[in-house]
Amino acid sequence: MDLFASLGLQIIYGIANLVLISIGLAVIFGMMRVINLAHGEFLMLGGYTVIVSTNNGVNIWVAMFILAPLIVGIIGLIVEWTLIRFLYGRMVDTLLATWGLSLFFIGLITTIFGAQTETTIAPPFGPIFIGEYSSSGYELFLIIITILLVILLYLLLRYTKLGLLARGTMQSAEMAAALGISTQRIYSTTFGIGAALSGFAGGLLAPVTGVLPTIGAVYIGKAFITVISGGTAILAGTSSASFLLGGINGIVSFVVGPTMGEVALLLFAIVLLRLMPRGITGHFFKRSL
Amino acid sequence: MVLETRALSMHFGGVVAVDRVDFSLRENELRCLIGPNGAGKSTFFKCLSAQLRPTAGDVVIRDFNVTESETHQVARMGVGIKTQVPNVFDGLDVEENIWLSASQSTSIKRARVITSEVIERLQLGSVRKAQLGALAHGQRQLVELGMVLAGEPWLVILDEPTAGMTQDEVVRTAEIIQEINKSATMIVVEHDMQFIRMIAQKVTVFHQGRILIEGDMDEVSSDERVREVYLGHRRPQ
Amino acid sequence: MKRSQETNALILIGIIGLVTLFGVPLTLDLYSVISLTTAVSLAILALSLGLIWGFGGILCFGQTVFFGIGGYAYAIAALNLGGSAVAIIVAVLVAAAAAVFLGYFMFYGRLSDVYLAVITLTVTLILYSVIRRTSGPEYKIGIAKIGGFNGINVPPINYPWDVNKFLYPEDFFYVAMVALLVTYFFCVWLTKTHFGRVSESIRENEVRTELLGYDVRIYKLCMFTIGGAIAGLAGTMFANSIGRITPDVFNLYNAALTIIWVIIGGRGTLIGPVLGALIFFYITSLLGQQNVVNINLFLGLVLIIFVLVVPKGIVPSLVQIWVRRRSRRLTAHSARRMRRRGRSRVTEVAVEE
């Protein structure tokens, strides 16, 4: 029984992990159909913000909940302002340019901080015990934070003015413009929020994974697969895809091993996309957020 | 019966674009589909070309049920398709565009012959080496028509073939269409009433996803309901 | 470019190729020859992407998947079977099979360009992370241990007709260079066949190609498979030039480089990517030896600048400038002639009056 609880926690954590690393990308993709290949680097920058500031005396909660999203959000706004906005509609060019951006960030951080991390930080919660199995208390914390985040985003999209404007622009940018909404402003804000979410996620994960300049590459594959499998509905898509893919990953990892777990995730996603090329929410839950 | 649809329906979410349409087309007909914007003509067209899979009902071409088929399968049957938005190869020249169509259905050698014939027939000789992306809209439409012809189809379906054309080009297109009709059955979806008058035999009027009335031009244009629903308007320039 | 100009260019390329083939081992030192062999294998990889992307319109961000699979399959086959020539053939076939498998799911699922690009990128990244973890002795195929992040040491390459006789590095340069030349001219020929023309039309307008009756899925699958096979061949050459194959071939950096070669060199040409790879190999080896500018920083900036400013790449832009200058020269010449003619006509009129 305890084994199941411990295993269950592992799997749920895997799902929450996927949601965390994908949600920033989903927001940007869902709004602007921009596939930001520098997404992994936004996560990485969030991680660096937390680790560097914590190592320099900043309280870890301030670093995670305020500094990381703020700094990476601002970086996102700058990126949108100087690069992305010239490439709207040019999907392939956006892919290429954001890939260049990704390399740029990796190079920049390597130049500033070196290719290895100096120190990591310990997860702020110790282990919790379920019978004779110990699980990471921090992982439980992350699960709770992820659930809260999703709820917060839902409320934001559904009940605030910004959320309504965002949803309108997502459905028809031309109509929104005709109603006097500055779509450029919406896009900039969305990109910034997407970046902030990614920075937040990266910061939260820093104690678990440590940071390297190249850690973005670890995130990017899974985040993309999740977002594309999910389809364009930001919350429903990311959640459903994370649930399916994270579940498969978790189960296969437990039965065979973590390596095969990753392979299983990829293969399942490829088959899923073959059956549902527009992602899960392109075929089911079509009107959802 | 060359083409038939039985209770053909196309739903997009809650919107019913095509509503249980029964349609039939006889050998060598030149049928015009008209109707106001949003009447469902183009959606109906896309169901015929297999670009859309209907929500319900059947499309039957020469006794073959093509409802579940892929577009290229329908095209291979000998159906020539010209879409509403011109779909041509902008980066290639006129000759290459037409050759690609011809070479799909015949040998390479014969394809070259057909290409030359089509270019001559449509008087495209002067632009044969011109890049399609550089040509005017009306000429691109003409080249697309040429691509349709080069496949030597026995059924030709055209969606707004004269959109963006000059008056001369419209007249020329009408002549070409009538010539094509000598060897192929045709469906033409159009907005331009003047053009319809030049070519129409039997006309089918669409309204809100259904067929309102079918008949020849005089019958249809004098019908009260058609007048109400669709005042024959000039194509906006 | 006109037909005759194109033929001239091809002849020129052939001559330069032959000169390089025979000249390099005679004039350069051993280290440079080996270095150049690696560069040549990367050029073949660039060619494979230049073919499927520039002509087929298939944007694959993970061409390194087939490059790496080719390299690994070669190493494993060479260790198990002993004969290098057979191992090369096996490797190319395995890479092609992988392309068929992946391609089937992507093209028959009618995935759009963008999704395709990202999925292929993800596959290469996953292969990287999975193979890195195969260090234990239990991970092996036949007698070949996959070796995790250390990779596999490739046995020395031997002659097809005598497996006990080994090739010297200079000799192997011939093999790689011939592979490049043969593959290049094969690709040129392919683009002129009906298959090549249809693939090009798919790139231009997939809908219209389908409306003409072509099953675009099978065309894309074939093109993708050919590209995968060529990338696999490149992988075998690469493994031999370095002496080993490691999971690094699958990493993000190399995947990005492949794209960069094609963009910089010129999408839409076949020689562009080849030149792009060779030039970049030179630049990155220079950069790798110094510590001032981080290589990722440099590559990232280059990519961004090229996408924004020179989207067509070097070779097509140069061709454009050259063509424009030629026509201007003609006009200047004919203008002089026209002016002379016009002057004489004016004097005639003056006389009449």
Concise structural overview:
In chain A, 76% of the residues lie in helices and 3% in strands. Chain A has 289 residues and is mainly α. Chain A has one domain (2-282).
What does this entry look like structurally?
The complex is a heterotrimer of chains A (289), B (237) and C (353). Chain A is mainly α and 289 residues long. Chain A has one domain. In chain A, 76% of the residues lie in helices and 3% in strands. Chain A has 12 helices and 2 strands; from the N terminus they run ααααββαααααααα. In chain A, helix 1 packs parallel to helix 5. The two termini of chain A are 36 Å apart. In chain B, helix 3 runs parallel beside helix 5. By secondary structure, chain B is an alpha/beta fold. The termini of chain B are far apart. Chain B contains 9 helices and 10 strands. Chain B folds into 2 domains: 161 residues, P-loop containing nucleotide triphosphate hydrolases (Rossmann fold, 3-Layer(aba) Sandwich); 64 residues, no CATH class. Chain B has a 6-stranded mixed β-sheet, sandwiched between helices. A 4-stranded antiparallel β-sheet of chain B has the order 2-1-4-5, with helices on one face. The interface between A and C is large, with 41 and 44 residues.
Rg of chain A:
19 Å
Overall pLDDT confidence of chain C: 86
Helix content of chain A: over 70%
Strand order of the largest sheet of chain C: 1-2
- Let me know the largest β-sheet of chain A: 2 strands, antiparallel
What is the N-to-C order of secondary-structure elements of chain C (H for helix, E for strand)? HHHHHEEEEEHHHHEHHHH
Strand tally of chain C, please? 6
Strand order in the largest sheet of chain A: 1-2
Largest sheet of chain C: 2 strands, antiparallel
- The proportion of residues forming helix of chain C, as a percent range, comes to over 70%
Number of domains of chain C: 2
Per the principal axes of the C-alpha atoms, what is the gross shape of chain A? globular
Secondary structure: number of strands of chain A: 2
How far from one another are the termini of chain A?
A: 36 Å
